[in-house]
Amino acid sequence: MAQNPPNLRPDISNPRLERDLSTVRPTAQPTIGMVSLGCPKALVDSERILTRLRAEGYGISPDYAGADAVIVNTCGFLDSAKAESLEAIGEALAENGRVIVTGCLGAEPDYITGAHPKVLAVTGPHQYEQVLDAVHDAVPPDPDPFVDLLPARGVSLTPRHYSYLKISEGCNHKCKFCIIPDMRGRLQSRPARAVLREAEKLVEAGVKELLVISQDTSAYGTDWKDRDAKAPILDLARELGTLGAWVRLHYVYPYPHVRELIPLMADPASGVLPYLDIPFQHAHPDTLKRMARPAASARTLDEIAAWRRDCPDITLRSTFIVGYPGETEAEFQTLLDWLDEAQLDRVGCFQYENVAGARSNALPDHVAPELKQERWDRFMEKAQQISEAKLAGKVGTRVQAIVDTVEDDGATCRTHADAPEIDGHLFIDAGFESLKPGDLVTVEIDEAGEYDLWGQLC
């Protein structure tokens, strides 16, 4: 399970985060710590909770010792994620003693209190008001109008130069391995004007990259009964692209109207990066049917070819599941063959595991753990070979990149092809001293590895 960001948790606090949060930690006012686990959507929830608390006069503590109470925003998507969430709750209880639990695992309060009966309160995902009520009960606010000031972009848990922008909540799909609709409900799209207003404020505050997220980004707005556009994500992407920041689209379900996004991505002036994060999950039609996913992998290859024809620079990222119940060796080999033909740029892979409440648990012919591991190893070897060959082809080219960090030995950057925390990096180890996070630079690539690039400033 990913932790976002890795240095947020109080048990692995760092000087930079403590320095940043010191500006929103008034002396003698109640303080709250936050442990944020799970996906970027949960991170956005954490930011909203902390922003609301900060507006009420609470300070934010980057360590357990300085907090009057700790909020643990949990993940409950997989059993391994649940176990890590319980571990984080236990650690917060041991280090601080006053713990409020929220997030996806909060949809199962008995599961949490059964393991940790001393937690102060449990609330479910995106239940902001209930979290605030729990904090008020545990640590009453002490507002001070002279110091209760919020930064322009609210409280951010990401670096200043990029931010996640959540455009909807919930999902209307019924994938058998997923319980997100049970935890977060059906699709609920935010009004476009609210999304754009938030994006404008972020850019005004210095954000250079907007990472658009939801459970199903391409379905944005399709839950509006009175909508004018068939696919509102097209207009939203177009409007976001006018704000002057990079716009990166995540979790784009491969509906037919996605092809209408490609001309935007092909136009450097649009602001929409040529990057699509599409969760294909598998390639064999029988496996996809058992997943309750669209079983049209052949047509998907045709779509990929069309996307690349219309936008040759497009980067395609996807995630897959191996060892799904009933997956045969032939089905898995089909996946490897499909990957060979698709030549995706960025690939992630998970071994299937049961999740309480998921319909896939009841499927027959579960794959043995050792076989799942063996298939995962083979899949990742194939993906690594593809990545290494693709990156080698970039040597000698010039690319635009955004600077993430600058340290004594070099600058760590990302290209259009790299999303933070999940993709590769571009490293600059000479002439970087004047750079700072958020700078946009042009780099000539002179070396490539399996997942990362090295280059020189132009």
TrEMBL record:
Q: Name one GO molecular function term.
A: aspartic acid methylthiotransferase activity
Q: Where does [4Fe-4S] cluster 1 bind?
A: 39, 75, 104
Binding locations of [4Fe-4S] cluster 2:
171, 175, 178
Q: Show where the Radical SAM core domain sits.
A: 157-389
Q: What class of enzyme is it?
A: transferase
Cofactor-binding details, from the entry: Binds 2 [4Fe-4S] clusters. One cluster is coordinated with 3 cysteines and an exchangeable S-adenosyl-L-methionine.
Which Pfam family is one of this chain's hits?
TRAM_2
What cofactor requirement does the entry state? [4Fe-4S] cluster
Gene Ontology biological process terms in this record = tRNA modification
For whether the record's keyword set contains DNA-binding, the answer is: no
Q: Which GO terms describe its cellular component?
A: cytosol; ribosome
Q: Which domain of life is it from?
A: Bacteria
Task: Provide the catalytic activity annotation.
Answer: L-aspartate(89)-[ribosomal protein uS12]-hydrogen + (sulfur carrier)-SH + AH2 + 2 S-adenosyl-L-methionine = 3-methylsulfanyl-L-aspartate(89)-[ribosomal protein uS12]-hydrogen + (sulfur carrier)-H + 5'-deoxyadenosine + L-methionine + A + S-adenosyl-L-homocysteine + 2 H(+)
Its Enzyme Commission number(s) read 2.8.4.4
Indicate the segments forming the MTTase N-terminal domain, all copies. 30-140
Where does the record place it? Cytoplasm
Q: List keywords of the entry alphabetically.
A: 4Fe-4S, Cytoplasm, Iron, Iron-sulfur, Metal-binding, Ribonucleoprotein, Ribosomal protein, S-adenosyl-L-methionine, Transferase
InterPro entries cross-referenced by the UniProt entry: Elp3/MiaA/NifB-like_rSAM, Methylthiotransferase, Methylthiotransferase_N, Methylthiotransferase_N_sf, NA-bd_OB-fold, Ribosomal_uS12_MeSTrfase_RimO, rSAM, rSAM_horseshoe
For this chain, the family text in UniProt reads:
Belongs to the methylthiotransferase family. RimO subfamily.
Query: Any idea what job this protein has?
Result: Catalyzes the methylthiolation of an aspartic acid residue of ribosomal protein uS12.
Q: Which NCBIfam families match?
A: 30S ribosomal protein S12 methylthiotransferase RimO, MiaB/RimO family radical SAM methylthiotransferase
Write the protein's name.
Answer: Ribosomal protein uS12 methylthiotransferase RimO
Q: Species name for this entry?
A: Palleronia pontilimi
Which taxonomic lineage is given here? Bacteria, Pseudomonadati, Pseudomonadota, Alphaproteobacteria, Rhodobacterales
Q: Which gene encodes it?
A: rimO
